[in-house]
Amino acid sequence: MGLSMATSAAFAFFVCFLISIATFHVCFCNGISSSANHTHNNITCFENEREALVKFKQDLKDPSNRLSSWDIEEDCCQWAGVVCDNFTGHVRKIQLQSPYYTGSPYVTFAEYEAYMSHKLCGKVNPSLLDLKHLQYLDLSNNDFEGTSIPSFIGSIANLRYLNLSDARFRGAIPPQLGNLTKIHYMGLRGGFDDHNELVLHSDGNLHWLSGLVSLQHLDMSGIDLSKALDWLQVTSNLPSLVELHLSHCRLKYAFSPSSTNKINFTSLDILDLSYNNLGSSVPGWIFSLNHLVSLNLMVCGFYGPIPSGLQNMTSLKVLDWSGNPSNSAIPSWLYSLRHLESLSLQGNLLHGAMSIAIGNLTSLVSLRININSLSGPIPVSIGRLSSLIILDISYNKFNGTLPKSLWQLGKLEGLLIRYNLLQGVISDVHFANLTRLRYLQAGGNSLTLKASENWVPPFQLEILNLDSWQLGTQFPLWLPSQRKLQYLSIANTRISESIPTWFWPSFPNLKYVNLSRNQIRGEISSLRNVGRLYVIDLSSNLFSGTLPLVPSNLYMLDLSNNFFSRSIYHVLCGKGEEPNNDMSFLNLGDNLLSGKIPDCWKHPYLQMINLENNNLAGSIPNSFGQLSRLQSLHLRHNNLSGEIPRTLQNCSFLRVIDLSENRFTGSIPPWIGNSFLTLIVLNLRSNKFSGVLPHELCRLSSLQILDVAHNNLSGPVPRCFANFSAMAEINNSRSPIFYYIGYGIADNLFLVTKGRDVEYSTTLGLVTSMDLSRNNLSGEIPEELTKLSGLWSLNLSDNHLKGKIPRNIGDMRQLESLDFSLNQLSGEIPLSISSLTFLSHLNLSYNNLTGSIPSSTQLQSMNDSSFLGNKLCGPPLTSCNPKKPIPAQVDPPGSEENGEGSSEALFFASMALGFAVGFWIVLGPLLFKRSWRISYFRVLEDIWHKLWDFIS
Predict the structure, then answer these.
(1) Is the pTM value of this prediction over 0.85?
(2) From CA 663, how far away is CA 71, in angstroms rounded?
(3) In 3D, which of 161, 148, 146, 235 has the Cα closest to residue 195?
(4) How far apart are CA 347 and CA 282, in angstroms?
């Protein structure tokens, strides 16, 4: 009874207490409601916190003056990037992230550098510890110049949000971050280059993460976790973890079955392990995460078919399996993952047809199956994907016509079907329902567009690519309606009229235009004040007249293969305006341009110059030396002269130098070998260079192509040419030489191989060649050259080389073309030459070689002209005849084919000159000096008598 009364009294007290609290709250709120906003507006930060922020600012570099509002005399709650608590006034948030750069292809170098200058630099001051109420700290996308993440951040006890991603921190991650027990979000993404390299502490483990029981989002992408063998156990036991991003972490899957049993991702929804080498097959523990909503396994090194274990992950909304060479058909079970909203299967070597079951994935918003070998028609059932926004099946082998159901996808914003085998006619009626379409990339198909004359499309495109479509001989009349166009490419569409007057003014936002490979004619006076053009490609047309004035912010200009004439001065040096300072790619090759190359090169971002095959004269201007980022220089086939200017050595990033077919003189500068350590191509063919081949060239270990043929070079072939390690490397998967200037551009080059001019572009990275022919080189062929086992073509013809063919010539197993003709080589052909199984072109003619031709399928299949002018036996020769005389006024057999044989006129002129000199030296004095003549015949008479006595 007493206990009951006590309990009742306690309960009554508790109820009264709650009522009093509620009453106080109501009264308090009613009392101040009228002044709540006034109180909030008058909250000012605390003095000690303001001083802490000022100290923090003092250690930062602020080139764009982002922190100009941080004045000690002002209220810090009003400063940019600072957020205070509404009631207490304490600093609660610091948001100083730099705007993230997306890498858009339409951003100029100047804009990129403006973004870079917007970054805060310097270091993080420990004054942040005075901000006792700080919960949110975001310093991402800045530049802390390789300094370490401060360990004191682990003492900011109230932090819930920490983002230090892509801020150019470097070194070990302080394990003190494990003291942030209240943290919900931790972003430590380290970036993917040397300047962002974050690593683990020396102990190499992640135990410090174990205490972060409230952590929901963890991003450690780009951090080297190769030594953290505990990464899976530690992260899987974080009880609140919802998102885990470990892309580009060099993760290793080295767990025993017993250890994987301890994996317990109870709350994980999103898992990103992309760009790690996790072995050839998917680890089994991933299949157990059947509650995952998003799984990214892009480029993880998995082989074989897409694993069937994924079919149990029925909650998946996002699946990215791109970049894993599956080399199989799309598995049928994949079409049963009905919750999928985003499916990416790019670059998987998938083949076969796409099943009609694709229509079951009705939740799909994004479908990317590009860069595979899928074939057959596009299924009609694709029209059932009514939620689809992005469809990308580019770079496959889909054939037939586009299904009518495709045009019913009313939510479609991006239709990407480039480079397939599609054909047929598309009319304006097909586009009637695609009112939201923004990106149409359909080039590289055999499609025809037939639109009515008055057609106005129901969409506003931002990107349009109809390359290789049949559009008719005129520019499409519906194009002007697309006022939002930023990217326009209608190359190779058979347009043959002049550019109409309405064309350029119709696109105020245009940044990229490609009208190449048509038959567009006429003149262009100016392209200035046209949209915001960054890229202009009008190559391979019939344009004529002088070069047009171009925008000052242009960074790619390709007017090659036209009929433009006269000077290039106003394109480079400006005309009434400042010259272009953003230019990165300039191609004016294959025109009728003349005059001198102007000396006004002040383009700090220029990477490629192509002025080849014009009528330019004079010397290379000294201002080329200001192009510090230049990678490729093409001046082939002009009338340029003089010596290579010494200022060019400032262009230390040069990878391609082609000065062939000009009239350059002087010696090959030795500084080429010291200045251009990344040089891949050096082509000085058909000039007037003299002197010896400098030994400094041997430092060019990346050199794949060396062509100094048809000059006046003398001296020996340097033995150290064996140091060209790129020529020694047997590698059939070299990448093309690309330059990134907003989109990839493959460099191209004309090379003389097997006697023919051949243009290499996308396969240029595969070529290895050395051509020293038609010079005055002497001495022996260095045996060391046979170490260049990756060399594809070797030509030393038409020199004065003597001695034997190197006995280990067979070690150069990649050789397809070998020419030692028109030298003074002697001895037998080495037996090892039979090992050159790729050899398709051989010329050893007109030397002093003897003996039998070694037996091999390659050698006996050669034409006999490959061996003429020697004392050789055996097939393909019919006999062992003495060295055959060279017919008068006829090129040696094979020399015309090689383009390397010496001029026979020069040969016989030399014979005539030798005869005349010998005649006048020996017989001339006898004709004019009687005493010499008498002595000479007395000597002959004595010789005759002695010979007769000997015979008798």
Answers:
(1) no
(2) 65
(3) 146
(4) 18
